[in-house]
Design a protein that fits this description.
alpha/beta, Aspartate Aminotransferase, domain 2, Aspartate Aminotransferase, domain 1, globular, binds 4'-deoxy-4'-aminopyridoxal-5'-phosphate
């Protein structure tokens, strides 16, 4: 079996050990005579998996007691709507910090729910080369919340220091960098992330939300969209994505076994540093459009001198066993997504290919 060097942006590579565990348990989970896919979500066998997944999130992210951990469906895109539906109270507005395509999508959906303000944007000639500086933020002290996108998956930018928003709840879409490093959850009112990059398969959305926000959230929306509905039922109000949560459990168990988020951070910084160095050391051929202090450790984007050379690069890399390097269709170029499960040897393959391609 030849596993490729997988640079997909999401769904993306999963740790081999998490997949092998699923393979070995698929036909018979813990001696129950059936797979997790066939278990009732109300039964003891599934319940143990579910609770272990919740515990692993709590442990790895050091989630404080006064936060709920939810496994929802509908992707991060559904949260773009559900966050304002719950937290954008009438008479209030919410601040959005616009840093790229995903922040814009979140803002666009929130506009369908209520009044929003743009507290900052880093758009320059249609591009987003960096994250904003604290002094650029025009925050409303009465806002219902401030929304940021911690890592822009398409633009390749990342907040390295989170903004100070005073007493207003900070809400982050962490879909593409959740658990890339230890994070102080207490700085946030709510964190959400589609699982399909760092946490597991698509179909599960992690929400970590402060309990007082659950309690004070709006009640004039359908029950299924109220955070309190799933919070009161440990995300088992209706049938969750049982297999998705099972596989997320496997992925988090592997992360824990490797030393948790401090180990993830060390490895991620090393991988990203190697690729950015390879780009910067050959300015005649490669160029990263992102300013240095905003560069993402998860999605490394770069350009070659012409789109034709970029196409050749992607084809050549594919022949050498590397997939997923074509930039997002909206921006072109090259994108190497190097999430937690991306192996160091894949990055080494890419760097070697970048050097050879130059020749
Ligand atoms: N936010 C970010 C930062 C993303 O990268 C993505 C997906 N690539 C989304 C939101 C949308 O996620 P989903 O497809 O789970 O709705």
């Amino acid at each position: 079996m030849a596993r490729v060097s997988n640079f997909n942006a999401g769904p993306s590579a999963l740790p081999l050990a998490a997949l092998e565990r699923a393979q070995s348990e698929l036909l018979d989970l813990n001696g129950s005579g059936m797979s997790v896919l066939e278990h009732s979500h109300r039964g003891k066998v599934y319940e143990a998996v579910h609770n272990e997944a919740v515990s692993l999130v709590r442990e790895l992210l050091a989630v404080p007691e006064n936060y709920d951990v939810l496994f929802l469906q509908g992707g991060a895109s559904q949260q773009f709507a559900v966050v304002p539906m719950n937290l954008l109270h009438s008479g209030k507005s919410a601040d959005y910090i616009i840093t790229g395509a995903w922040a814009k999508k979140a803002q666009g959906e929130a506009k369908n729910v209520g009044t929003i303000r743009v507290a900052a944007t880093t758009e320059q000639d249609g591009k987003f080369p960096r994250m904003p500086r604290q002094e650029e933020l025009q925050l409303d002290a009465n806002a219902a919340y401030v929304h940021i996108t911690s890592n822009e998956t398409i633009g390749g930018t990342q907040w390295h220091t989170f903004p100070n928003v005073g007493n207003v709840p900070l809400i982050a879409d962490m879909s593409s960098d959740i658990m890339w490093r230890p994070t102080d959850v207490s700085k946030f009112g709510l964190i959400y992330a589609g699982a399909q990059k760092n946490l597991g398969p698509s179909g599960v959305t992690l929400v970590v939300i402060r309990k007082d926000l659950v309690e004070s959230a709006r009640k004039d929306i359908p029950k299924i969209f109220q955070y309190r509905t799933q919070a009161a039922e440990n995300s088992l109000y209706n049938t969750p994505s049982t297999f998705g949560i099972y596989l997320l459990r496997n992925v988090l168990a592997v992360m824990k076994g490797k030393g948790g988020l401090a180990a993830m951070e060390a490895q991620n910084r090393k991988k990203a540093g190697l690729i950015y160095n390879a780009i910067d050391s050959r300015p005649d051929l490669y160029r990263c459009p992102v300013e240095k202090d905003s560069r993402s450790t998860m999605n490394v984007v770069f350009n070659l001198t012409t789109p034709e050379l970029e196409a050749e690069f992607v084809t050549g890399a594919q022949k050498a066993g590397m997939v997923g390097l074509k930039g997002h269709r909206s921006v072109g170029g090259i994108r190497a997504s190097i999430y937690n499960a991306c192996e160091m040897k894949w990055v080494e393959n890419l760097i070697e290919f970048m050097a050879q391609f130059k020749k």
